[in-house]
Amino acid sequence: MESLQINARRLWHSLMQTAQIGATPNGGLCRLTLTDPDRQVRDWFKAQCEALGCTVAIDEVGNMFARRPGGNPALPPIAMGSHLDTQPTGGKFDGTLGVLAALEALRTLHEAGRQTNAAVEVVNWTNEEGARFAPPMLASGVFAGVFTADYAYARVDRDGKSFKEELDRIGYRGTEKAGAHKLAALFELHIEQGPILEAEGRTIGIVHGVQGMRWYEVTVSGEAAHTGATPMRLRKDALLGAAHMIARIDAIARKHAPDAVGTVGRLENRPNSPNVIPGEVFFTVDFRHPDDATLDAMEEEFRAALAELLPPLGLSFRETRIWHSPPVTFATDLIECVRIGAAKAGLPARDMISGAGHDAAYVARVAPTTMIFVPCAGGISHNEAESASASDCAAGAQVLLNAVLEFDRRLG
Ligand code: GLV
Ligand code: MN
Ligand code: MN
């Protein structure tokens, strides 16, 4: 069978077109999940798929599945996709590339009139980022049975708005039960979000799995008081306690380096006034490592640090582990399809694992999944400056299509 070539210019045009939805002045994107820009990009995506004759199903947590029928209706669909939501100061490629490259693959199949054995679907997963509603990969988690739909519905953002009310508000609460939609496979293309491919001059990452990750929320309580009139010995400064913890969390991750990472990414200081000693501080912790036993050790050290560092400063605390995603290994037959797809495209590739979380990690519990990475400039992501070249995006889309066709061929 002749090989199909994706259209690099069309893919780039779609990337730049959708980058106007939620664009920030610094060239990035703020398309937080279930906001108006999220609705706009979903509407755009749905219209593009329908223009190709696809039907678009939406499940109860807003996941979108655009289907192009195959020759054998008895086969479950082969899915490709990622997410269209972004971080508050996110880039144009994290997530979006995976959905739009999948759309480009679909357009290529459509244009060529190629009949696949199985139906082919493009998926947009809701709230991969977890930036607005923690935890990340929330709706793919519901799809995979990790969370219930009611758990997702009850998540609230920092303004007190719930996932369910916002999903309803943007009109994307579908009728299909999450997970009722069976998949033969899921292939997810993504930028690497790290420096390895660029440094080695390789175009394709053949991804074997995703490291483990855990999120915690901590509230440190002290006493708000006058900055001028309260002697140092009488202070209960919650921000000082948080500062000690931030340094310790960094030290814990460095102790378990090079594979461990640890971050305090969100911090809320109350009342946040120049002349009030901080009375309460909320912060988040993100620990990651490929091995669960190391994450257990890091967690133990973190909890011991809270008990060691805060009470001597007159502070109390509440700590909750709000999320745990264990390390994931992808499906060997899909990895093989990606390897063949990269070789067929004549692209330099290397095997790797993912430092970032992805929907394919949860979906792996209910369907075979894998991922394809392409380089991003300087390894920078979750940043408005995030950048990937048109040729690398096209290379990723080509490997995605090749891998899907190889998988489909094996079903035939
Ligand atoms: C998702 O973007 C994550 O890795 O946190
Ligand atoms: Mn992503
Ligand atoms: Mn992300």
Describe this structure in words.
The protein has 412 residues and is of the alpha+beta class. The chain contains twelve helices and 16 strands. It has two domains: 8-211 and 327-411, Zn peptidases (Aminopeptidase); 212-325, 2-Layer Sandwich (Alpha-Beta Plaits). 35% of the residues lie in helices and 21% in strands. The mean pLDDT is 97. Helix 3 (96-112) crosses helix 12 (390-411) and helix 10 crosses helix 12 (390-411). The two termini are 13 Å apart. One manganese (II) ion (MN) is lined by residues 87, 94, 129, 382.
CATH class of the largest domain: Alpha Beta
- Sequence of secondary-structure elements: HHEEEHEHHHEHEEEHEEEEHEEHEHEH
Tell me the Rg in angstroms: 22 Å
Given helix and strand content, the structural type is alpha+beta
Q: In CATH terms, what is the fold-level topology of the largest domain?
A: Aminopeptidase
Largest sheet composition: 9 strands, mixed
> Uncertain segments of ≥5 residues (pLDDT<50)?
none
Helix content: 25-40%
β-strand number: 16
Quote the beta fraction.
15-25%
Would you identify the CATH architecture of the largest domain? 3-Layer(aba) Sandwich
Average pLDDT confidence is 97
| First-last Cα distance | 13 Å
Bound molecules: glyoxylic acid, manganese (II) ion
Oligomer: single chain
CATH homologous superfamily heading of the largest domain = Zn peptidases
Number of domains: 2
| Helical segment count | 12
What overall geometry do the principal axes of the alpha carbons give?
elongated
